[in-house]
Structure formats: C-alpha cells, structure tokens
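hiii so um. not sure if this is the right channel but i have a protein structure encoded as tokens and i wanna go backwards to a sequence. like what aa goes where. can anyone help
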C-alpha cells in the first residue's frame, strides 16, 4: 500500500468491470492491497470498527469454547452490527466486503509495528477466519478453496460410502456415523504432511482423505503463513508511511486503543476497607491480581512491575491513598524493609500513582491489553497475565489450586493452547 501526503489514500490500481469482481467471495486471504482512495474519516471509522470486532473475537475466545453455539451467535451478531460480511449467500454485500478488505489492511499497518502487536493481530484474524470459514455452505466452501488456490476436491457421497470403513479406522475421533455426516476432501500429501506423519488420515493413490475439521487446520495454517509474511513485509515499509504526519498519529492511536467500556474511571474510591482485601482476593480478584496478592502476602515484597500493576488495581477498586500507604508499609515491614526505608524508597511511588507527586497525573489501572502486551515478567516477577505468560502446566496447577473444576481447567487449556 502507498499513501500520498495530501490525503489518506489506498493507492494501487483500479480494476475495470462490475464492482463485484473486486470481491467475488465474502471471505479472502487479503493478498491484494485495496485499490481506491478513501477519506481520513472513513479510514479511521473502518479501522475502529474492525478493531472493535477483533476485541470481541479475543473476548469471546476466552469466555467460550471456540465454535460452540454461544460463541457463534455472539460473534455473528457483532459482525452484523458492525456491517462486516457474515453470510456468504448475499450477493449485494459489496459495501461490507469493501469495508472488510480495507479495514484489514489499515489494521495490518497499525499492528505490524512490534512482534507483540503482530502476534495479537495474527491470532484474532485467524480466529475470525475460522469462524467465517465454518459458516460457509459446502458449495461456497469449495468455491473459497478454489479462490485461494487450495483446490481440494470434495469427496463424493458414493466414494465416501465406498471408503467408509477405511475413513473410520484411519481418522481418530470419527465414528461411522460421524464419517457419514462429515465432508471429506482429497488433499495432496504436501498440504497434509502433518496429518500424514501423525497417522490421522486415510491415504490412497497419493492423496489424503481429510475431514472438514482438519481442512480447517490446513486452511488456517496456509493463512497464518501468508499473513505472518505480509506483516513482516509491511513492517519494513513503515518508514515511508511514518513520514505522513496525518497517518502516523492515527496508526499509533489504533495500536494502543481500547474500544470497550472504560473500567479505569474512578467510581468507588474509598469504599473498601483493608480488612476486606484478603477475602476479596480469593472471591473476586482476576487471576493476575490474585497471583500478585498471594505473592505479596507470601514474600512481603513485590518488584516494581508487580507494585505498579497491583497498586493501581487496588486504587481502582477503592483504596484511598492513606489506605494504600498503610497496606504496603505494613506488608513490607513484615519482610526486610524497615519503616524508614519504606518511607524513603517506596512511599513516593505510591503517592505518585495517586497524582500527589511528580507530574500530578491521576493514574488509572492497567488495562488487560497493557498487561498482556508490555513489560513481560522475568524470574522472580509476579506481574503480567498468567494466561499469556505462565507455563501451561504451571497455569494448570494454579487453576486447580483455585478450585477450578477439571472440566473448567480442560476448557481453559483448550481455548488457550488448542
């Protein structure tokens, strides 16, 4: 993509013919940049709507098992509300397809700037594609595979019935009933090499007979490879875009935006007591703050990252400055910090968080995105997001210690690690 300095424009080339030829399918791999000029107003509007959609994708992926009915219902509703393509049957959804195409490339610019941003964007876009691919009818799914040059031949019902026993015994997790219900595709061994090595598919005459559930994985892996490479190439072109004084602030704003409710607004200051904190930490704290509270009680100390993350959270749930100073001082004195050292070395930063020192900024609690994307914990640290930064087995043990039932632990592991 190229931009002129006079106005935001997605400048490439303009295709002739019916405008529907630009977007022959509601789903795509976003291989070709947009072909038209757009205003700054539309630029920002499209980007914010897609960012809001990706935030919903992220939130639903944590709350529900990806693909269950609640997940699909809520994500489909959001696609309709934000006017992105949600049903591939419609032939007159040019504006929705156009918005989908352009907004993806705008956010690609905003989220290619760091490795963490690229990783986040890639994951949400893959989850979105997975949902939309699974919503296609059999015929449209076949057309999409041809459209993205993954021309896997659908196995006819007659051939599937003929090979039913082999398909059932060669495909883990599929009963004879599920074999009859499931679509299968003939896939070259190059594309199905991982399934072949794991002995998860039936092989005949140089083709793997892959069920729809595993076609998803092949499509997503192909998309991941293409988008990951595209993000890296986009990052290299950033210097030419950063010279545009009108675009760069917008892109920076998008990559740091939080488009959900503002939970950091101070509404309950002074409405909890110090005596309530231990009980609340077990009953009501998010896992990241519960982890920090336990580490503080166990070690009577937290490093700077932990103090900032937990201190601003305590401020956000209602501790006054006086309560915060008392809370931290009592705990640190129980460790290796005496009262004088605390007053000299730690009290200033607590007052600073409450806007009483330095620039007098009244700081708000960290958002989930800030916790996830910045200042990862190192050895001896307890801040960060356990779902992002913990070893999977350690996270499992932690969830079990919090009395999460085995089914819940399994669901969390499935959502996070597949």
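sure thing!! here u go:
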């Amino acid at each position: 993509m190229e931009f002129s300095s006079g106005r935001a424009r997605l400048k490439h080339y303009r295709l002739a013919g019916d405008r529907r030829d630009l977007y022959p399918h509601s789903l795509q791999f976003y291989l070709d940049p947009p072909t038209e000029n757009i205003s700054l107003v539309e630029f920002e509007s499209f980007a914010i709507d897609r960012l809001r959609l990706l935030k919903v994708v992220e939130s639903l992926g944590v709350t529900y098992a990806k693909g269950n009915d609640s997940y699909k219902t809520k994500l489909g509703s959001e696609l309709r509300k934000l006017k992105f393509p949600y049903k591939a049957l419609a032939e007159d959804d040019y504006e929705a397809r156009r918005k989908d195409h352009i907004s993806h490339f705008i956010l690609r610019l905003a989220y290619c700037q760091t490795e963490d941003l690229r990783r986040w964007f890639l994951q949400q876009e893959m989850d979105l594609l997975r949902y939309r691919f699974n919503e296609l009818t059999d015929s449209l799914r076949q057309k999409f595979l041809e459209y993205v040059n993954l021309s896997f031949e659908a196995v006819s019902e007659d051939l599937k019935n003929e090979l039913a026993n082999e398909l059932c015994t060669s495909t883990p997790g599929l009963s004879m009933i599920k074999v009859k219900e499931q679509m299968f595709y003939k896939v070259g061994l190059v594309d199905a090499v991982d399934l072949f090595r794991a002995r998860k598919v039936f092989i005949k005459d140089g083709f793997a007979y892959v069920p729809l559930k595993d076609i998803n994985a092949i499509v997503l892996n192909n998309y991941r490879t293409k988008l990951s490479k595209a993000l890296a190439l986009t990052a290299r072109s950033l210097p030419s875009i950063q010279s545009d004084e009108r675009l760069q602030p917008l892109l920076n704003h998008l990559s740091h935006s939080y488009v959900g409710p503002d939970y950091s607004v101070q509404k309950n200051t002074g409405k909890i007591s110090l005596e309530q904190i231990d009980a609340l930490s077990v009953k009501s704290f998010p896992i990241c703050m519960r982890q920090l509270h336990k580490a503080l009680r166990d070690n009577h100390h937290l490093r700077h990252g932990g103090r900032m993350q937990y201190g601003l959270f305590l401020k956000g749930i209602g501790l006054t400055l006086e309560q915060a100073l008392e809370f931290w001082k009592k705990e640190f004195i129980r460790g290796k910090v005496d009262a004088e050292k605390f007053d000299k070395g730690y009290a200033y930063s607590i007052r600073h968080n409450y806007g009483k020192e330095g620039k007098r900024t009244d700081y708000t609690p960290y958002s989930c995105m800030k916790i996830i994307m910045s200042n990862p914990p190192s050895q001896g640290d307890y801040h960060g997001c356990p779902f992002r930064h913990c070893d999977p087995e350690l996270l499992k043990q932690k969830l079990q210690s919090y009395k999460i039932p085995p089914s819940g632990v399994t669901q969390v592991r499935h959502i996070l690690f597949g």
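oh and The radius of gyration is 26 Å.
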